[in-house]
Amino acid sequence: MTMSKGANVPVPAPAVRVEVGWGTGPGVPDVDASALLLVSGRVRSDADFVFFNQPHHASGAVRHEGRRTAGGTVTDTLAVDLDRVEPAVETVVVAASADGGAFGRVPGLYVRVLDAGDGAELARFDSRDATVETAFVLGELYRRRGAWRFRAVGQGYDSGLAGLATDFGITVDEPRTAPTPAPAPVAPPPAPPAPPRPVRLSKVTLTKEAPTVSLAKQGGTSGRMRVNLNWQAHRRFKGRGSKLGRAVAARSDLDLDLCALYELADGGKGVVQALGNAFGSLHGPPYIHLDGDDRTGAVETGENLTINLDHKEKFRRVLIFVTIYEGARSFAGLHATVTLTPQNGAPVDFSLDECTVPSPVCALALITNDGGDLVVRRESRYLIPERGVSPQRTVDHAYGWGMRWTPGRK
C-alpha cells in the first residue's frame, strides 16, 4: 500500500520488519536507518535510541538488523516486535540519516512495513522531495485505541543524525555539564553523580571504493576489539500465510563459523575457530579469542571474536573469514554484516557483497601491522574450494599462510 505524506494505516501484524531502501550508485551518500522509542514525544533515556552503534533495545522489542544490497538497491532494516513494546511507549519513530551528502543525492528513498510472519507489505512511503536534508523522520508506528498504526511523516533535518537525535532528547557527543556546586559547608557534600555517557554516533563503513581504515586514526589503539558477524537468510515469501514462506524465512539449521588465521611477529601461525575447539586466548598468544559458537545470527549475539589491542605489536597479520558449517551449500541468498568495534574507537562495519558463485567460505577482512598501526582492509572475497579441499585450506592457499591442516570436528 503506497502512502502519501501524513497518511496513516492500521498495522494488524504482531511483529513487523521496517525496511528503509534507496538506490545505489556513484556519489550516493551512505544511509543508515534508526528508531527512537518515545513517551510523550521524547525518549526516556539514551537507551531508547536503536541504531548501528546500539543495535537492540533492552526490551528486545526493536532491533537494527543491518543492510543488504541486491542489484541496484540497498536496504537497512529494523525489526519491531509490537507485542513486546513496553506499554509506556507510545511511538516508535523510523528515521534515516545520510553520511557524505544530503538526501537530495539519494535516489529512490522509501520506507515500507512488512508483516514479519509472512512478508506481506502493509505500508509503503516513497520520499520524493528531499533536497539539503541529512536526516529524515520517514514514518512512525504509534498506538491508537490499543491498536498499532503507521503514519508516513517525511520530515527532514539539515543537522544530520546528531540534530535529529538531540531533538528527541538523546545526549550526543558532549556529556552533560555537572551543576555548579554551592559554597562548601563545614562538611563537604557528596560528589554529584557522574554525567551520563553520551551516545557515540561516529562509525566507519568500508566499501569497494574505500576498503581500508587505520585503527589508530579512529582511536582504536588499545583495549579489546570485538569482531561481530551476524546474518540472515534472504526471505522468499510465497504469499500471505504461506507455510513455504515461513519455512524459507526460518532457516534454523543454518550455522556459520567465524574464524581467524593469524601470523604473529615472532613467526607463529595458527587458526582460531570452533572446529577442533581452537577458541584461542585473549591474554596469551594468539591474543585472539572466539567467544562461542552461535547458530542464530542475531544482531545482539551472532558470532564474535575478540582481539586484544594491548598486544597489537605482537601481530603481523590477521585474516578474519567465515565458513558455512551446515544448513547451506553457498553464501548465495544469505545476508551478512561484519562489525569491528574497538573499545576506544569508532566502529568499523561493512556488508558482504552478494554471492553469485557456489562458495562456502568467504574472506571478510585482513588486518595488517603497518609500523605499529593496525590497518583493516575489507576483503569480502568468496572462494570456491577444489574437490576434496577444506574451506580452511582454501583460505590458507589464497592468502599464502602455509599451514598444515588435519580434519577436525566440533
TrEMBL record:
Q: Which InterPro entries match?
A: Stress/Tellurium_Resist, Tellurite_resistance_TerA, TerD
Q: Which Gene3D superfamilies has this protein been placed in?
A: sav2460 like domains
Please state every residue range assigned to the domain named TerD. 1-168
Listed Pro residues bias regions: 178-196
Where does the record place the region Disordered? 175-196
Q: Which family does it belong to?
A: Belongs to the CAPAB/TerDEXZ family.
Question: Which protein are we looking at?
Answer: TerD family protein
**Organism source for this protein?**
Streptomyces macrosporus
Taxonomic classification, please?
Bacteria, Bacillati, Actinomycetota, Actinomycetes, Kitasatosporales
